[in-house]
């Protein structure tokens, strides 16, 4: 009986505090970050007094934050790794994945590049250093400058998983850049460059290549035709209660407004209702 | 005045307490340094027992995210060395020359304007330098290749030279400011004595003022070296971060990766939760940086002490 009293007191406090504070902390991927920020802004405009903070420290750090309980929602541009799942189950954290959008990784080159498209195999050969000059694959006589995201990013993990495979190592001369915008900026400045970035970061200043003959676009991603595409996740510790702030924010990805936001940022909303 | 034994005791205790507090405050700084070394070494040592020093120092295979991971940091050490050395080679002559000009050549009014302007370079945040390198220096360098003799192609504007150039500029204010102070400290009497003996301005400068302030100049250079070696944000943004030894090794136009950039770039992924060797290897790198810094400092102290002895004796 004593225990019951304690329990109800604890529950009472937690319910009260959830309503009184209206606070939500999100952390993780720089790719999912823009969605989280736009959702947070929209929600806070509609519900003054609610405080949502969004940090972008990378998918790895997002998973770490969920593990350590320093965030309510972890934004990841990849699924959890086995090691992360293991660490979480050891700590009693129950990660629940929510797919909020699709993203594709277009492979981008300088606008002056003559090459129109590559196969996944050719892209792998470029990144592992087997192809080093654009003339080998139908371009001008120009050394290829390989640009990659840093190994801390979910974008890198996705590219590694979908293009490189587990046995290939990126050529040692490859440059590493700390953000998607950085990759685009390096590619638009560098004639011989090849890089990859989230669909939302590709604009007219760079040229997106066809991969295996498929143009990266919303349609080809939803149809699962474009080979280098992925799901974007928000992870919570356990399924959030229906009336919780986390649940409301997550459900935004299925609303009209949410889908509009996702499209505006340059990602592909989840199809369906 | 005679004091009662109780009174004497009280005064003595008060004095002891005062000393204790002062000693405590002073030792906070020393303890902080010791604590940093302790904690870095504690997390660095597991790497050497798990992977071993051989791969770390001798291999150039840096694939920490691969399965199985490889932790060859030789190329990263080479990258740090190359970028630091180039930055120092650029900044030291320029900085010392500027300091000489300001202290002994240029009119006083010019110095009063120049020195604050140069010192302002130190107030610019390093991420701003990095941004400048990425958006201004790198494109300039890429286009610059075409009007250099031989019209050779600079494939990537983000390379060892870009990083070194910016690091050199960042080290300048330290070098100029400290060495100018050292030259000033040589004093007016020394200069006037030299002129009185019939020495010209150039003779005074090179045979009297510079030898007299050489230890100060040396510390200026040393501080500049450490500034260049420890800088992180700029090299992360402007060096390209390719873990390779350029071919040939002095080819500054290829991207390189430095220790500081590797620690900053890999910290997020490399926690205890995912592969622990990747976590510890970054501490091993930090420890190496710390030890090099220490060695530089000790060598500096030793040279300065020797110089003082020589000046007193001679």
Briefly, what CATH class of the largest domain in chain B? Mainly Alpha
**Assembly form of the protein:** heterodimer
Major sheet characteristics of chain A: 6 strands, mixed
**The CATH class of the largest domain in chain A:** Alpha Beta
Number of strand elements of chain A: 13
Instruction: Provide the spatial order of strands within the biggest beta sheet of chain A.
Output: 2-1-3-12-4-13
Tally of individual helices of chain A: 10
CATH fold assignment of the largest domain in chain B: MetI-like fold
Distance between the termini of chain B: 52 Å
Mean pLDDT of chain A: 86
The CATH homologous superfamily of the largest domain in chain B corresponds to MetI-like
Helix and strand content put the structural class of chain A at alpha/beta
Shape designation of chain B: flat
How many beta-strand segments of chain B?
2
Largest sheet of chain B: 2 strands, antiparallel
- Total helices of chain B: the number is 12
The low-confidence runs of chain B, each spanning 5 or more residues with pLDDT under 50, are none
Terminus-to-terminus distance of chain A:
47 Å
Beta-strand portion of chain A reads 15-25%
CATH architecture of the largest domain in chain B: Orthogonal Bundle
**How many structural domains are formed by the residues of chain A?**
2
Structure description:
The complex is a heterodimer of chains A (273) and B (314). With 273 residues, chain A is α/β, with parallel strands linked by helices. Chain A has 2 domains: 7-102 and 232-265, D-Maltodextrin-Binding Protein, domain 2, CATH 3.40.190; 106-222, Periplasmic binding protein-like II (D-Maltodextrin-Binding Protein, domain 2, 3-Layer(aba) Sandwich), CATH 3.40.190. Chain A contains 10 helices and 13 strands. Chain A has helices at 2-21, 33-46, 59-68, 82-91, 120-127, 154-164, 180-189, 218-222, 245-251, 256-265; strands spanning 23-28, 51-54, 73-76, 95-104, 107-109, 117-118, 145-149, 175-177, 193-196, 207-208, 210-211, 229-237, 268-269. In chain A, strands 2-1-3-12-4-13 form a 6-stranded mixed β-sheet. A 5-stranded mixed β-sheet of chain A has the order 8-7-9-5-10. A two-stranded parallel ribbon of chain A has the order 6-11. In chain A, α6 (154-164) links the parallel β7 (145-149) and β8. The longest helix of chain A is centred in the first third of the chain and has 20 residues, at 2-21. Chain A is globular. Chain A starts with a helix and ends with a strand. With 314 residues, chain B is mainly alpha-helical. Chain B has 2 domains: 5-50; 75-272 and 290-313, MetI-like fold. Helices cover 74% and strands 1% of the residues of chain B. Chain B has helices at 5-50, 53-58, 74-105, 108-120, 126-144, 160-185, 188-196, 201-212, 214-230, 233-238, 259-266, 276-313, and strands spanning 62-63, 70-71. Chain B has a two-stranded antiparallel sheet with strand order 1-2. Chains A and B meet through α3, α4, β8 and α7 of A and β1 and α5 of B.
């Amino acid at each position: 009986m004593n225990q019951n009293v304690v329990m109800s007191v604890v529950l009472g406090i937690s319910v009260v505090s959830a309503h009184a504070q209206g606070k939500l902390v999100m952390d993780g991927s720089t790719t999912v970050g823009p969605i989280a920020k736009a959702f947070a802004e929209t929600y806070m405009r509609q519900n003054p007094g609610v405080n949502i903070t969004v940090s972008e420290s990378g998918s790895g750090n997002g998973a770490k934050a969920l593990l350590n309980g320093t965030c309510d929602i972890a934004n990841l541009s990849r699924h959890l790794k086995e090691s992360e799942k293991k660490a979480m189950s050891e700590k009693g954290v129950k990660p629940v994945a929510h797919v909020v959008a699709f993203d594709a990784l277009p492979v981008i080159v300088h606008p002056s590049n003559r090459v129109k498209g590559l196969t996944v195999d050719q892209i792998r050969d470029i990144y592992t250093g087997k192809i080093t000059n654009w003339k080998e694959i139908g371009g001008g006589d120009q050394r290829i400058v390989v640009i990659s995201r840093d190994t801390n990013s979910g974008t890198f993990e996705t590219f590694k998983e979908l293009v490189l495979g587990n046995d290939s190592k990126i050529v040692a001369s490859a440059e590493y850049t700390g953000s998607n915008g950085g990759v685009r900026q390096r590619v638009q400045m560098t004639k011989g460059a090849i890089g990859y970035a989230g669909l939302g970061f590709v604009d007219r200043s760079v040229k997106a290549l066809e991969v295996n003959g498929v143009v990266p676009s919303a349609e080809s991603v939803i149809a699962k035709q474009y080979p280098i595409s992925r799901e974007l996740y928000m992870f919570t510790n356990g399924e959030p209660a229906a009336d919780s702030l986390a649940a409301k924010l997550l459900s935004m990805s299925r609303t009209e407004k949410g889908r509009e936001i996702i499209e505006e940022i340059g990602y592909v909303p989840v199809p369906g209702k | 005045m005679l004091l009662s034994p109780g009174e004497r005791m009280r005064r003595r205790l008060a004095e002891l307490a005062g000393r204790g507090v002062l000693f405590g405050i002073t030792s906070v700084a020393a303890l902080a340094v010791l604590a940093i070394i302790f904690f870095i070494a504690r997390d660095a040592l597991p790497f050497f027992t798990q992977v071993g020093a051989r791969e770390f120092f001798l291999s150039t295979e840096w694939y920490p995210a691969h399965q199985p991971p490889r932790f060859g940091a030789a190329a990263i050490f080479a990258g740090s060395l190359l970028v630091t050395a180039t930055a120092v080679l650029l900044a030291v002559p320029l900085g010392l020359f500027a300091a000489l000009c300001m202290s002994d050549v240029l009119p006083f009014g010019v110095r009063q304007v120049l020195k604050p302007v140069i010192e302002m370079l130190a107030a610019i945040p390093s991420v701003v330098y990095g941004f400048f390198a990425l958006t201004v220096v790198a494109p300039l360098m890429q286009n610059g290749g075409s009007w250099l003799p031989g019209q050779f192609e600079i494939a990537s504007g983000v390379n060892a030279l870009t990083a070194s150039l910016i690091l050199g500029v960042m080290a300048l204010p330290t070098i100029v400011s400290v060495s100018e102070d050292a030259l000033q400290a040589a004093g007016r009497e020394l200069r006037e004595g030299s002129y009185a003996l019939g020495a010209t301005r150039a003779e005074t400068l090179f045979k009297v003022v510079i030898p007299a302030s050489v230890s100060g100049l040396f510390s200026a250079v040393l501080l500049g070296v450490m500034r260049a070696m420890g800088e992180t944000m700029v090299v992360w943004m402007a060096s390209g971060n390719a873990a390779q030894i350029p071919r040939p090794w002095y080819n500054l136009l290829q991207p390189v990766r430095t220790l500081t950039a590797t620690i900053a770039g890999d910290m997020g992924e490399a926690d205890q939760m995912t592969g622990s060797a990747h976590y510890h290897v970054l501490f091993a790198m930090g420890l190496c940086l710390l030890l090099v810094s220490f060695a530089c400092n000790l060598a500096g102290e030793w040279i300065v002490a020797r110089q003082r002895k020589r000046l007193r004796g001679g």
